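User: Fold this, then the next.

Assistant: Folding the first:
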Amino acid sequence: MDPTKIVVIGAGSASFGLGTLATIIRSEKLRGSTLCLVDINAEGLETMTALARRLNREWNADMTIESSTDRTQVLDGTEFVILSIEVGPREELWKLDWEIPTRHDLRQPYGENGGPGGFARALRTIPVMLDIARDMERYCPEAWLINFSNPLPRLCLAVDRYTDIRVVGLCHQVQVAYIIVGAVLADELGIEVPPNLQMTSRPSAIAARHEMARRAHLHLDIKAAGLNHFTWMLDIRHKGTGEDLYPLFVERFLAFDRGFQPLTQEMLRILGVCPVPGDEHLAEYLPWMHDPLTKPWEKYDVDLYAWHEQEARRADGFRHAAAMVVGEAPVDQLKQVKSEGAAEIVEGIQGTENNYVEAVNVPNDGHITNLPYGAAVELPAVITGMGVQGLALGDLPASVAELCRREVAVQSLAVDAAVWGDRELALRALVFDPMIDDIDRARAILEDYLAIHADYLPQFHGRWSW
């Protein structure tokens, strides 16, 4: 494979940067390539650059490692831009996005990608995302943008709709499908379930979840599609025999421990199709999860995001990266880090490898026939020299498609509102959201978001123009 040039924006983050750098630098197929690290956090960037150089040296990757706090200094000639950014302090603003609606008697179940919280995050991030894409149009117009940032479908839709840059979004949430199916069919598959397995996003649960997904992958092949963090299992096969395991899974899951992903079980029971993302993310897109009288978040035991714990985990990750830089911690453990798909996309396009990726987010070009054309859909794909080739899956089940269509409309309105700084479109996007059941409440939440986040919303205050 010919060497290529890859720019990683957001590389100063220990949580994103460690895994991304490790999977790229350890790739035999990318030997000799140029890897450029970019972050506005100069201290974090310095640490991750030093770590990348150590990995490059000890793993004999023969790469050229560059870094800059100014992306325009390294974009020229780039063929792939891998991106994961946050606008403002991540946990602090996410918590605020959740708290503001509670002042108006709306309790979101999670507030990251859907609901008012996902809306506010999109408003903050889309202008920065489009500024990056415009720089790509100037310096590397043929490059691929591989996006990990949330709310992922809204950001990918903005780039696709308002620029000429080719964009693909990546997310690891499909792994939850393997955890759920593996746990439910553990006896049939001969899988040992980790004794401390918990279906929560808390840092203490991550290791067991990753191990459960790894074990399930040895036995299962799952096809899922829909929208990011709102996908649905369409097919479940045994890898060894090709047996269709979906009927057995449904039978076992509906008779399983009712405390294990109860909201997911309920949706399967009602719709006949099992959702993928786990209860926490699933709850963001459903209109039945915010009633203050019935308190469905208690009924289904839906956890809030552990803001303080995740902030501490991020700091620990950075300290660990710094220890690896100075040789106080080994680096070969990074060879075991599971790829989230970026390296496979680069290898597939650059080397015509025909790589299969379980979940990509791409513009709907007839891949899912009963969702709107151009919507940002998530589905399996084959990565070739022709680019990202999403699988043609036909119709989603009718009830699932109806839920997804409403979210597609919300995403579209939110993107246009964020680009044009249009308050009427912004209100419309909130009113359409399944979390909202009162117009005046939507209006009050919008006004608070625009006032409190004013420093991050230049488009609504005459300081940014598309």
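Now the next one, as you asked:
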Amino acid sequence: MHEAGEHVHVAVFPEVHEMHQFTSRQFAFERRCFVLAVGLLMRVGDLLDPLKADSLKDKSDALILRGGTSIIAPNGSYIVEHGFDDERIIIAELDLTMIDREQMTLDVTGHYARPDVFDLRVRS
């Protein structure tokens, strides 16, 4: 993914809990791209009856997956912070020039990558 030079990475998770937020922020920081971390909002009523635990059958409005969708900038900061427990559409304007500015401080596939100096080959 780094070599492809993506500007916007969409990371889809069942639910974007704390570790997924951490992973998404790390990816944005390391790749210097925007990350849309998308989480699902799912209620008990969305499940087929055979999949429902007996303790949940009368709680059709209870949440199983709580969402957590966020938009993360190339420096790892939040453009839109994650929100849980409510269904909403999030919108943000992305300044793609921020990618170039951030790559001046860290660019793992750009000026740090030196195929002229280092070449790894594995022979089996």
